[in-house]
Amino acid sequence: MITKRKLISLLADTESYHVERTSSTTNMDKFCQAICAFSNDLPGSGKNGCLILGAHDNGALSGLKVDDGLLLRISNIRTDGNILPQPVMIVEKFSFDKGDVLVVEVQPSEIPPVRYDGRVWVRVGPRKGFATEAEEKILTEKRLSNVRTFDAMPCIGASIADLDVELIKKEFLPKAVAAEVLVEDKRPIQEQLSSLGFYDLRYGCPTRGAIVLFGVNPERYIHGAYIQYVRFKGEDKTGDILNEFKFSGCLCRSLVKIDNFIETSVAVKRPIPVSVLREEIFSKYPYWATRELLMNAIMHRDYESNAPVQFYEYDDRIEVQNPGGLYGKVQPDNFPDVNDYRNPFIAEAMKILGYVNRFSRGVNRVQQELRENGNGEAIFDFSLVTAFKVVGKSSNTYFEDGFGVQEHGATQDTTQENGDTTQERILGMIRGNPDITRRELAVLLGITPDGVKYHLDKLRRADVIRHVGATKSGRWVIIKKKLDCPV
């Protein structure tokens, strides 16, 4: 950690590859670029970089007054998700007679290249700019030599043919890399993926993380890489199985299906009267909180285990359990205030794809949303040692006003969905996954394939949807965005 004496010497010296001074307090782009460049540490010095706010280029103080707002804005750079992987940095205020100085001390990353807004920034001498292909290759080699997490290891025996390259080019690269950089990048796909940590050029194969995220058949190499949903009747596993589904395939595709499934089949909504003239919408399980709990399980699970992520629903609760207990620095006494990543590359990709939000905020927001929806807080079980489990109770508010009845402590939903509701759900599922099959719809809706066919035929006759292509390999096209009236 920098001392006041060291800071004085840095102010008296010239700018260099590990020191940048600025009198600005509002140019967040400039600050993020500097932090990204310091994290990449292209010279390989191992020295921490220092971004000094409140000083002119010549080292003279600008008379800055550091307040709590500025401290918070600069500190939030670490967790706002724009710099990936997350930078390791310390923000500290120093006071002098002629003004305050805010120092952002940045530690070189062990898993470069680090990107800000899809670009790799580096510092050569006092100048910073975009990394060249040669410089990016140097940073990639550092990452390969430093990282030892499971998702960064080469998947020996796999090849580029085991990845859905078209999916990567269409869905992932445009979100991971700035558009103008991607246009100019003429390297083979293997080298592009290597720069992102998803291909090992030494062994000529994808990483295990790449197989999980983009693999044609991930279970061929990582046997537990799927999510198992089961709906039990009653309050334990002795009850009948009302519905079950296996979300398999690469995460880049299956996360879309999971997201849609939670919204249409788990986070079931109903209006609750709160006054004579006003209603509020409540869910049995709030969509965002449920989604966050399941996405965290997928992101943090131990992929070396052959067990899947379990997503079980009972009459009175849902349970999400993933292989692998708390990881790294995270302990029961500091959870959820401290975070660590068992699968940093998978976590980074899920953030890029939009399935994980700002780091280290999710659990607190989950608890808040559950409380506001009438579920009460989620219960986190750390006692399983080799697994992590979270339990969310169904919403009491959702079952108010005679909508549900209680029998032997179990909540039983007494409503039956009408055709309109089922058709709206079908439209939502098609919107989320145009390639969805009739069989998949039947499983997600909990009705027979003939029942699905009945609703699909009505939607087609009403010109709401149409099917293009072959019967087994075609896709659905939505003509109307929503139903104007029952069909």
Task: Explain what this protein looks like in three dimensions.
With 487 residues, the chain is α+β, with helices and mostly antiparallel strands. The chain folds into 4 domains: 4-130, Schlafen, AAA domain (Methyltransferase, Cobalt-precorrin-4 Transmethylase, Domain 2, 2-Layer Sandwich); 147-220, no CATH class; 227-413, Heat Shock Protein 90; 416-487, Arc Repressor Mutant, subunit A (Orthogonal Bundle). The chain has helices at residues 4-12, 28-40, 68-75, 133-146, 165-176, 179-184, 189-195, 208-214, 251-266, 287-300, 344-353, 362-373, 419-432, 438-445, 449-461; strands at 19-22, 49-53, 83-84, 88-96, 99-107, 115-116, 119-124, 127-130, 199-200, 205-206, 227-232, 241-247, 269-273, 279-283, 309-313, 317-323, 379-381, 387-393, 404-407, 410-413, 465-468, 475-478. The protein has a 6-stranded mixed beta sheet with strand order 12-11-15-16-18-17. Helix 2 (28-40) links the parallel strand 1 and strand 2 (49-53). The termini are far apart.
